[in-house]
# Entry
Amino acid sequence: MSARILIVDDEEIVIRSCRRILSDSSYLVDSTLDGQEALRKVDETEYDLMILDIMMPGVDGLEVLQQVKERHPDVDVIMVTGLSQIQTAVKAMKLGAFDYLPKPFDPDELKHVVDRALERRRLLQENRNLKTEVGSKYRFENIIGASAPMQAVYGLIAKCAPTNTTVLITGESGTGKEMIARAIHYNSLRKDQPFVTVDCNTLSENLLESELFGHTKGSFTGAVVNKRGMFEIANNGTLFLDEFGNIPLATQAKLLRVIQEREFRAVGSTVTQKTNVRLITATNKDLKAMVAEGTFREDLYYRINVFPIHAPALRERRDDIPALAFHFLKTFCNELEKPVSEISEAAMSTLVNYDWPGNVRELENTIHRAVILASDKVIHRAHLVNIIDSSPRLDLEVPRTGEDLKRLKKIAREKSVEDVEKLFIQETLKRNASNVTKSAEETGMQRSNFQALMKKYNIRVRDTEYGPDESQPS
# Structure
């Protein structure tokens, strides 16, 4: 959309000059000779920019500027001034003007300052849109799941989000603990402040302390510059410490001080810094059991366990699996530009009855892989290659020795390869209307090798006319 500009000057020649200079651009230019009329126009029309003369009869430029900034603070204003009015122009800058131009001004100079103002406005709008988009994405009502366990989670998020209470999120890996943390932040009074994440599982003790508290130059080998820590970066916002159960005892003691005193010192520094962060922690470990074992501080446990939220495992909310599956299906179809829109009954039954040890993250990866494998608009059971036959079977031989284990692992690997090869042949034939020659050419295989794989798995051409997990008509 073209930018809309209002030119306000009591000299018609100045207005004509500005219009001529800006005519090469695609701006929508409006004008008026009167300050009072300018205020009326700004109230009625959404302008991106004003070019405003300071000295005008009646309502002068400074008064117009002040009222515009009070009523429409997003409108940028460029002041136009005579050489004797520079001090007044400086005052205008203090009142919120974007910039000023002395008369007479060069055409290129006007174009430059207009372009600069509009570019700044565009970047600010993009930033606002991004914040709105992120905030919308993490509204707790947008977390997918209507099951009773998830309804309980929504209720807890709604209660704690508007507060500054410290939250502990527990649950298995892949259950969406970070999603819950973000939902809390983006529904809180801190939503316009930083949300900072630290994965406590990926850093050694020294690096973790540096990450959390920062360090000074020369405080340890490799510290070549001063570094801000996450407690400083997240100030006034939310700090999310993931995998909190993996924090070493020595670091736990320092964290306890931060939580109690709301202050910290960077590694190697003697200066104490204040911090105002909301702390949210998450873990897949039993912290209470760790306290009993002596591997987690009891005083820290009670400091972080002010408001606990448990993220239920996916197997505990099977009713949500279809909605989650179709959500991921839509996401990956858009990403991969594939027209897959359905999940067969057999495939959905497999998804719902699987135990999902990797929880929502494993379901997401499974649907992603299935969309890649699908050759038409339907995901079939055979596309769920990573979960088919994953459940323990009573008829499986249980290894008794190390040699037995090696032998059975080899058999299991070969079985997985066979599943992929079989699906590969079925889908290729389906894409090529059961034409063996075209199928071989598409895959870059020799026809004889392609036919050998068909023979290995007893795949006949007519078998590929139907979905790989659907029954053929009799």
Summary: Residues 391-396, 463-474 have pLDDT under 50 and may be disordered. The longest strand covers residues 76-81.
